[in-house]
Amino acid sequence: MKTHCTVPAKLILSGEHAVLYQCPALSMVINLHTHCWTTFQKETASTLSIELCDFNQHHTLSLTEFRQQARQIEQRYQAFLQGKTTIQTVLRHPIELILCTVYHFEQAFSINTGSWRFKIRSETPIGRGLGSSAAVILSLLSSLIKQHQLSVSSAELLTFAQQIEAYQHGQSSGIDPATMIYAGLLQYQIDQPIQPIISPPLNAWLIDTGKPESSTGECVVAVKSRHQNNTELWQEFRNTTQAITTAIQQNDPQKLQQGIRQNHQLLIQIGVVPKHIQTFITALQTQYHAAAKICGAGTVSGNRAGVILCLSDTPPLELCQRYGYSCQPIALQSQGLTCEINE
Asked: Residue 332's pLDDT is what?
């Protein structure tokens, strides 16, 4: 049996970091996809063959080897929870996110005995704040669910993916997998119903400043240590997200730009926007009358901060070229996670 599952990338309009402190966030899916092709054949012994196209890696493991490595990952994660190590030591190689996902599936459902082949390829720049980890987790989980002919609700899938994502980032709000499952533009808040938002077309550009030196997990830990109890700050994030939501609902481009700029200033305040990126965004504002902000966790070291969302009537190609950044148009996508059987 062969399956092909695809998951779109996610982009956060407002609420990075704040979503972890009971604040609402706005997120959307865009037309960059992660693909997982899975083939299963019944055999007397189980093997896992995993091809990671983006890393030019191919791994083959017996069931015993897979379980042994997965248990080691689990031990490192428990050490992280106990404060004995950092989150970046839990999943040390790209293959380990795959092993962690398959292991969690096996613990919940048991896995069919036979030959498993997984091929994963992504159009999404990895480590840029576009939810590449969540996309891999969801595409792989959905493949396994489809292959085993299981009935799993969207809510159950979200909970499952969120648990696994914590191994990558240390703490998962659930916003990445939720956006990828439900698609469109969403208002997301932990322990609250997901609210779809109807959005007009946006003149939006995705600018890639490069992979940050800090991981999402490192940024989450750093922000928590500095600002966890700053209730006034998180209230400002809450107000800004609400202002952006209202601007979208009223189709008011000027107020939308004001909200995006305010969100940018708040991200500077929590310390995840490097000076180099601040200078670039200021140039976008003055030269293109644009509004721009980083859209992932940002960084607490170095000059690269992942992707920037830029709202501008004119593509800022010349400025991006001067800084060595790539720039492409993006569009809101209404289709989320899909999974098909390919005979």
From this structure: 85
The whole-angstrom separation of Cα 34 and Cα 6 is 6
Contact between 267 and 259 under an 8 Å Cβ cutoff? The reply is no
Tokens 């890393």 correspond to what residue? 55
CB 102 within 8 A of CB 74: no
The pLDDT tens digits for 282-303 are 999 999 999 999 988 889 999 9
Residue 14 carries which DSSP code?
Answer: E
Q: Is 260 in contact with 291 (CB distance < 8 Å)?
A: yes
All domains in the chain, ordered by first residue: 2-196+333-341 (3.30.230.10), 199-330 (3.30.70.890)
Q: Which residues pair with 114 in a beta bridge?
A: 42
The pTM of this model reads: 0.87
The β-bridge partners of 292 are 310
Kindly report the number of other CB atoms within 10 A of residue 329's CB atom: 12
The DSSP element (H or E) to which 11 belongs, if any, is strand 2-14
Strand partners, 210: none
Q: What radius of gyration do the chain's Cα atoms show? A: 20
| CA-angle at 10, arms to 145 and 254, nearest 5° | 150
Q: In angstroms, rounded to a whole number, what is the distance separating the alpha carbons of residues 191 and 22? A: 8
What is the identity of the amino acid at 101? T
pLDDT tens digits, 113-167? 999 999 999 998 888 888 899 999 999 999 999 999 999 999 999 999 999 999 9
pLDDT for 256 beyond 70: yes
DSSP 132-146: HHHHHHHHHHHHHHH
C-alpha distances out from residue 334 to 30, 141, 151, 179, Å: 9, 21, 23, 11
Residue 46's pLDDT is 87
